Every structure is written in structure tokens, then in C-alpha cells.
């Protein structure tokens, strides 16, 4: 997909907001912060990329979707109505997203890594969880959540039970895997090692990913970089492409 942005416009990338179905005070505050941030970028945004796990759990029944997130959805609708394209890449927490946001808010949904050419620069963009799979259990979970039959079986559950199960699973998953692992060098970063392998087959100027919950800007070679957008649980980091280069920022101080 090709995009061309004017000299006074930018492309924004953010991920891992992890809003819960039953929100508490911290979720409410985080949603408000994110909405306020969206409000600050709408004047110069040529496009916005949301790189997954914006919700801690998401499942769409044919006529039922999770409650909440009204302020976020309202702001996203305002932005798309004004002509700003929004691309949403599903993550491991919200990969069962279907067409609700597409039909109601005109957001383009992506279920896997996707290539973009923006102002002549080549990007590979996505959540990135498929590049961070290790161990038998994680391989089984990745297969299960991507399996169409299992998704249909889950959809046969009454929403009262299905949503409750998803909510509780998300809490347990966060306790087991949610803690951000510190950066111990490029040789121990599985996502970084996997983008190196991808780069051996095809050139990209920028790999823009989420999932890791740690903002990173790592040089792969002289012409390619790996950018991780971090998270909005604490640091509120995001990436910006100005037409020439990608840089990381934090909204936390500006939103205080």
C-alpha cells in the first residue's frame, strides 16, 4: 500500500493501550489521556496506525461487542470523519476483532504484518506478536487464537460467558506474561532477531512494531531500523514519521 504525505503532515504510530472491559480508575485515566493525545495530533496527522492490543480483550459476536470505550470510539470516529485514515493492526489480545470498527468508524483492519510505502520509504508494520513466539505453550496459543473453527466454537458461547471468560483469561495472561522484560541487548531480543531474518529476504527502511511494551529504536544495518512503539500503560510512547525519518516520543509529560 502506498501513501504520500504533504510536507507539513506526519504519520503517527501507537500501540498497547490495553483498555479493560470492566474499567477501573487507571483505565479511565489512560483512555482520557489517549483521547487527548489524539486531539493534539489531529491537525497534522496524515494517517494514524494503531498497532494492536489497544484493548485487553476483544471479541465480536454477530450482534454483540464488548461494552465501554465510548470516548475512544467517539474520537476515532471524529478523526476518520475528518478524512484522516486510521489503520488498526490486531494484536494477541484483540486478534478476534472482525468488522465492527471498519463498518462503524471506517477504520481499516489488518490481521497480520503489512507492507507500506510512505513517501518512498519502505515500512513493515504490525503488532509483532508473531515475531515473539517462543516455547510450546505460546505456539499452541498462537495456533488456537488464529484457528477459525475454534473462533466459531467460542462464538457459540453466550456473550455473558464468553466475555467473562475472555476477561479472566486476559487477567491471568497479564499476570504470567505482562511484566515488561528489560532490554538485555540486541542478541536477546527475539523480535529484533526475527526482523533481521526478514531483512535478509527483502529490504525495508523501517520495521514499526508494538507488543514488546518497551520503546526501542535499534539500527539493523546502515539502511534499516527496528522501531518499537512501547506502550501506554505507563510511558505513553509513540512513533512519528515526518516524511523522512521516524522518531520516538512520550506523551506523558505533555499530558500532565
Entry keywords:
Purple Acid Phosphatase, chain A, domain 2; 256 residues; alpha/beta; globular; single chain; 21% strand; 6-stranded mixed sheet
- The first-level CATH class is given as Alpha Beta
Q: Beta-strand level of the residues, as a percent range?
A: 15-25%
Number of helices: 7
Overall morphology: globular
What profile does the largest beta sheet have?
6 strands, mixed
Summed over residues and divided by their number, the pLDDT gives a mean of 87
CATH topology, by name, is Purple Acid Phosphatase, chain A, domain 2
Span between N and C termini?
Answer: 37 Å
Question: What does the model show?
Answer:
With 256 residues, this protein is an alpha/beta fold. It has a single domain (2-250), classed as Metallo-dependent phosphatases (Purple Acid Phosphatase, chain A, domain 2, 4-Layer Sandwich), CATH 3.60.21.10. 33% of the residues lie in helices and 21% in strands. The protein has seven helices and twelve strands. The strands form two sheets. The protein has a six-stranded mixed β-sheet with strand order 1-6-7-8-10-9, with no helix packed on it. Strands 5-4-3-2-11-12 form a six-stranded mixed β-sheet, with helices on one face. β2, α1 (25-41) and β3 form a beta-alpha-beta unit. The mean pLDDT is 87.
Amino acid at each position: 500500500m502506498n501513501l504520500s504525505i504533504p510536507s507539513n503532515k506526519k504519520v503517527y504510530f501507537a500501540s498497547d493501550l490495553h483498555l479493560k472491559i470492566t474499567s477501573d480508575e487507571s483505565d479511565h485515566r489512560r483512555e482520557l489521556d489517549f483521547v487527548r493525545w489524539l486531539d493534539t495530533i489531529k491537525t497534522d496527522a496524515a494517517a494514524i496506525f494503531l498497532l494492536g492490543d489497544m484493548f485487553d480483550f476483544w471479541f465480536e459476536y454477530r450482534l454483540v461487542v464488548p461494552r465501554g470505550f465510548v470516548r475512544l470510539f467517539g474520537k476515532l470516529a471524529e478523526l476518520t470523519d475528518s478524512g484522516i485514515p486510521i489503520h488498526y493492526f490486531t494484536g494477541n489480545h484483540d486478534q478476534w476483532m472482525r468488522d465492527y470498527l471498519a463498518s462503524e468508524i471506517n477504520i481499516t483492519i489488518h490481521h497480520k504484518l503489512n507492507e507500506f510505502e510512505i513517501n518512498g520509504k519502505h515500512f513493515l508494520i504490525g503488532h509483532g506478536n508473531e515475531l515473539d513466539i517462543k516455547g510450546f505453550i505460546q505456539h499452541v496459543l498462537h495456533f488456537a487464537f488464529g484457528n477459525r473453527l475454534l473462533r466459531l466454537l467460542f462464538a457459540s458461547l453466550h456473550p455473558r460467558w464468553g466475555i467473562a471468560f475472555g476477561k479472566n483469561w486476559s487477567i491471568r495472561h497479564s499476570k504470567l506474561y505482562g511484566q515488561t522484560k528489560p532490554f538485555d541487548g540486541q542478541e536477546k531480543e527475539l523480535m529484533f532477531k526475527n526482523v533481521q531474518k526478514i531483512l535478509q529476504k527483502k529490504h525495508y527502511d523501517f520495521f514499526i512494531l508494538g507488543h514488546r511494551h518497551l520503546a526501542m529504536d535499534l539500527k539493523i544495518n546502515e539502511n534499516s531500523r527496528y522501531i518499537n512503539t512501547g506502550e501506554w500503560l505507563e510511558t505513553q510512547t509513540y512513533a512519528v514519521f515526518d516524511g523522512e525519518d521516524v522518531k520516538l516520543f512520550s506523551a506523558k509529560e505533555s499530558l500532565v
